[in-house]
Structure formats: C-alpha cells, structure tokens
Amino acid sequence: FGLVGVIPGLLIYVVSYQFVSRSIESWFDVKVEGALSAGVNLARVTLDTIASDLANKTRTASTQLAQVHDAAAGVALERMRDQLGATDIVLWNSVGQPVASAGQSRYILNPERPSAQQFRLARQERISYQIEGLDDISHSQASANARVRTLVLVANPGVGLLAEPRYVQATLPLPQALVANAIAVQEANREYQERALAREGLRRMYIGTLTLSLFLAVFGAVLL
User: Under a CB-based contact definition with an 8 Å cutoff, are residues 174 and 146 in contact?
Assistant: First the structure.
C-alpha cells in the first residue's frame, strides 16, 4: 500500500511541478514586459512632445502682446485664445497679479496663480509647461480633463530697468484619444508589474498544494 501511494504520487508530483513552473514562467514573458515598458515610455514622450509644441505655439502667439497695453490686452487675449484653441488665457504682471484674461478665467475673481517656481522657470527659460489632469479617478475624467498649462514670458520691447516683465498663461486641452490610450497602457503595465512581483508567491502556493496532496495520498495509503 505504501508503494502504491508513493510511486504514482511522486510521478504526478514531478509532472505537475514541471507544468506549474513552466506555466507560471510563460505568463510573464520578457518580451511582453519590454513591450509594456516601451509603450509607457512612448506615451510619456509623446505627451511631453505635444506639451512642448503647444508651449512653443503659445510663445509664438504671445509676441502680439508685446506692443499691447494692459488696458487693451483683453481683445488680444481673445484673439490669441481663438488662434491656439485654448480654454483659458491669463496675462500676469511681474508680481503675479492678473492683468487681463480670456475664456473661463473671465468669470473667476481670483484665477489660479502659477507657482513661484513656474514664474522663475519662465523668467529664466522664457517658457515653462506642465501636464495636468492625468491623475483623475476614471479614464473618462482623465481623458476629458487632461490639459497642458503653459507659462511664457512676453517679449518686452521696452529698454531699461523699469520695464516690468509680463507672463501669459494658457491652458490647452490634450487629445482625448491619446490620453486614454496612454492611461490604458500605463495601467496595464502597472497590473503586469504587480502580478510579476507576486510570481514567486504564486509558485510557492502551487508547489505547497502539490506537496500537501502527495503527503495526504501517502499517509492515506499507509493508514489503509
């Protein structure tokens, strides 16, 4: 009875062990992991390229504000908003106070002010941008709220130390299809990495189950 329980049990145990090990390894292919990582990097680079292109367009369009006084900047901002397809444009002075606005900010008493770091970067590099709205809860909200917020330094024709700089902040939407695909690839890569981390635990669970089944089969045969 012991031989009847041990020999078939060992045979089934060895075959099942090899099958489980190879099956788990086949679930986590190196090529699939590389493709997901490449997809995430491609989506990140694509979004950054689009954001940089929108920021450069904002900088080019801001040249029409160089000769415009603060009192007449509203009309120029409306024309600039139509040209860029932006949802919101705000003109800030050197101390971070809104001078004029077009779009949604016209109905807001205190528009959202850029951070001091963004002002400093725009003053040094003449341009700064950041992508917002990608951390929303659902895919639909993220794809609808994804936007690029650019801040560029308006070229000032005035000469001298008394000429105060002005900044144009434009909010431009990102393509919803591109954002949805980027979020889908990122979530698929995150789920794959989470399951890859649990790969060793999954293998131990299956092997432990097989070992327990072999022990119970041998024990039952001997007891019988």
Answer: yes
